[in-house]
Amino acid sequence: MFAQSDGQSVEYPRPRASDLGIRIGGLSSGEWNAITDVGDVRVGHTTVVHGDSIRTGVTAILPHGGNVFRDRVRAALVVGNGFGKLIGGTQLSELGELETPLLLTGTLNVWRVADALVDTLLASPGFESVRSINPVIGETNDGWLSDIRARPIGAAEVREALRSAVHGPVEEGSVGAGTGTRALGWKGGIGTSSRVLPDELGGFTVGVLVQSNFGGSLVVAGIPVGRILRDEVGEEPREPADAAGGGSIMIIIATDAPLDHRGLERLGMRSFGGLARTGAALSHGSGDYAIAFTTDGDRPMTPGGRTLTAVFGAVQAATEEAILNSMFRATTVTGFRGRRSEAIPIDRLREILETR
Fold this sequence. Notes:
By secondary structure, this protein is of the alpha+beta class. The protein has helices at residues 89-95, 110-122, 155-163, 225-233, 261-277, 305-328, 346-354, and strands at 2-5, 8-11, 42-50, 54-62, 73-82, 97-98, 102-106, 136-140, 182-183, 186-187, 190-196, 205-214, 247-255, 287-294, 333-334, 340-341.
């Protein structure tokens, strides 16, 4: 896999959490340990790197490979802290359904991305009589590494993210909407993970994709890695907080469990448990959003208590691991005004994990 680092295309040498022997929770992951383990979910990226000032992009999450406007999926939005510029959330919450792909980007690009998505859909076959579309666009602030006022995302970038969306392994780290993000004092980005329930609990899959860009002190599987690294060097490599006052996270959750709107809300709420376990500060200025949807097209039902508890545990574990993957896979990026966000040092991280 490839990503942009300091404006150059480089092969990823960096591991995922599972490659380091990190095991979170007692459930197994899916084939790709990604949100794409659920149904026909697809993910695509457009990474936008221009000169020494633009480090941004778009990430598209498609609930399935068909026409989402015609074949909608049940969905829910949960707001942990509402310091964000999410588009389309009120209708999603009111009707309990998602009618477009989910797109993630940088804060001041959200309106351009929404406009481009609407234009793209209106021009598509079968949309000739459509008079209303509810695009759902999430964001985090990548203004430390990218010239956020430039707003470089347009129709071409949105369409490429949609076109490139695939059902399979997901590229992580400093790509797409994660190109210019930071997390827990280090380079953040896009990360994903999944968990599969045993057959006796329904065999359901829960997949999570995150755009990590938040503050705090990193905890890995209960080990205070951020504090240890801070003590070694005197301080963590933490840049000044951005205009949002502490950063944000978008958490996208997919499942094939037959949950209704309320069940999906409850699932989304539990994802913040996984966020907290990574050492998140959950600050005043953080936009913390979870959007959960189910690919199950049958009549919704409420699974039994044991199954629900297992599904809730699955989303917490997958969220925690997705955040770690977003950081471990991220490459060091230098961008706007020479600012630099360092990738977490994998060799030292490995040493800490092996001795604790």
